[in-house]
Every structure is written in C-alpha cells, then in structure tokens.
C-alpha cells in the first residue's frame, strides 16, 4: 500500500490549515539544535513536503497499525507551534 495522491493532499491541506490557524507561530524563528541558523516552522514544513520521506514515514506507521491517514491528518492539523 502506498499513500494515494489524495491522502498526500489531505496531509498537505492539514499542514496548510495549521499554518493558517497560527501564522505568527508558524513564522516565529527558532534555532535548530546543532545549527547556527534560524528557521521558521513554515520553512521547515515546506521543506518536509518537498520530497516523499515524510509521506513514506506516515505510510510505514499506518502499515504497522499505528494509526490511520485520518489520525495523522488530525495530528498535523492540530500542531501547536511553540510560544515565545
């Protein structure tokens, strides 16, 4: 089983809803441990969704019985960005 294009779009849309819900939190810079550069959650999410690694990881979790696509959509949608 591979995630369908529709399932991948559900996850992308869930990330978009999370970003729209808290744009200030999504754009608040933070430093990744071990890096000397600031990034934002919006930037991190955009880079995560460029390839298939994230989707492949979700697929493995679903195959292992650790949730459904709807569970992961809900988790993504409910991301809470750290407050300053």
Task: Please explain how this structure is put together.
Helix 1 runs parallel beside helix 5 (69-77). Strand 1 (30-31) and strand 2 form a beta hairpin. The chain contains five helices and two strands. The chain is mostly helical. Helices cover 58% and strands 5% of the residues. It has helices at residues 5-21, 23-26, 41-48, 53-63, 69-77; strands at 30-31, 38-39.
Q: Which percent range fits the helix content?
A: 55-70%
Low-confidence stretches: none
Radius of gyration: 14 Å
N-to-C SSE string, H for helix and E for strand: HHEEHHH
What do the pLDDT scores average to?
Answer: 93
Number of helices: 5
**N/C terminus separation:** 41 Å
Overall spatial form: globular
> Got a strand count?
2
| Largest sheet properties | 2 strands, antiparallel
How much strand? under 5%
Structural class call reads: mainly alpha
Strand order of the largest sheet: 1-2
Which characteristics define this entry?
84 residues; mainly alpha; two-stranded antiparallel sheet; 5 helices; globular
Brief summary:
The protein is mainly alpha-helical and 84 residues long.
């Amino acid at each position: 089983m591979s995630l369908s294009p529709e399932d991948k779009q559900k996850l992308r849309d869930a990330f978009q809803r999370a970003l729209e819900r808290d744009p200030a939190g999504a754009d608040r810079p933070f430093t990744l441990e071990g890096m000397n550069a600031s990034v934002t959650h919006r930037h991190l999410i955009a880079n995560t969704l460029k390839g298939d690694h994230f989707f492949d990881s979700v697929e493995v979790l679903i195959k292992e019985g650790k949730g459904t696509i709807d569970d992961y959509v809900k988790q993504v949608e409910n991301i809470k960005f750290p407050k300053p």
